[in-house]
Amino acid sequence: MLADYLIAPNPGGAGLTRAVTGRNEHGEPVALSVVEERPLTIYLNRQEIVTAMTIGDYPEYLALGFLRNQGMLSPDEDILRVDYDEELETVVVRTASETSYEEKLQKKTRTSGCAVGTVFGDMMEGLEGVQLPATPVKSSWLYTLAHKINRTPSLYLEAGAIHGTVLCQEDRPLVYMEDVGRHNAVDKIAGWMLSEGVEASDKIMYTTGRMTSEMVIKTAMMGIPVLASRSGFTAWGVEIAQQVGLTLIGRMRGQRFTCLSGDERLERDMDPKDAPVEAKKHRRKSAG
Questions:
Q1: What does the pLDDT look like over 104-155, one tens digit per residue?
Q2: Taking the mean position of all CA atoms in its chain, how far away is CA 2?
């Protein structure tokens, strides 16, 4: 299963979880594995941009993706290097050209992300004129992806309290990122794509969390034409998806799903009754 992935979750990774003890409803001692959470401060050249709470893996990708999704790095930006200092918990992204975002930093919007996501500037800035490619998507791909992703060993299955986002191509999951906030997981994928020069027009983004305006905007800014989730939608998220031509598919639970944007691009090539059945132990909560 893990052979499908270019980057897979690492639930046993050093420093990602911590063992703690407590007592259950009967007063009996219990041991739990809980997810670690730590700050990461991102700099663009000499300017401090933001401090994010994160699980601490792939800090370079998180920094690159955050800056890219905030419009602070263009796709063709000349990035000289990315320096991570584990002791200082900082990442510095250095570019060949001078950057200055003081005005943008003064205008912030708090988003609905679980770890308090922040979008700088006008949330719709950068979406003007965006029209995503009318990439077709097959229902058989969606069923196969959900089955593979939900059975993949992950931090969620190990400790819970975390979101996952997976970059996919047709029915193959490629890069699976997790974090305490879904926005961080998306930014890690954006950073990986930017670093590796990966084409976006034939990709699918799968997320375990809600499809909010922030999630839709980030996906559209990355140029990915399909966003799918086992969770639900917000009205503004649906409206933006329809505006930019994003295929939006949610409530993917077992053999069911709902498409609220881009249904004309969805090819229902598999009878739902033939879709793989999800075992109870692999079922996620659908809220969040």
A1: 665 554 443 444 455 544 556 677 788 999 999 999 999 999 999 989 988 8
A2: 19
Do 5 and 45 meet the contact criterion of CB atoms below 8 Å apart?
no
275 three-state secondary structure? coil
pLDDT in tens, 235-245: 999 999 999 99
| Residue position matching structure tokens 């499809």 | 211
Helices assigned H by DSSP within 13-87:
59-69
Round to whole Å and give the CA distance between 49 and 53.
Answer: 14
For the chain, the distance separating the N- and C-terminal CA atoms, rounded to the nearest angstrom, is 26
Question: Is the CA virtual torsion 7, 8, 14, 15 positive or negative?
Answer: positive
Burial call 47-79: b when 16+ CB within 10 Å, e when fewer: eebbebbbbbbbbbbbbbbbbbbbbbbeeebee
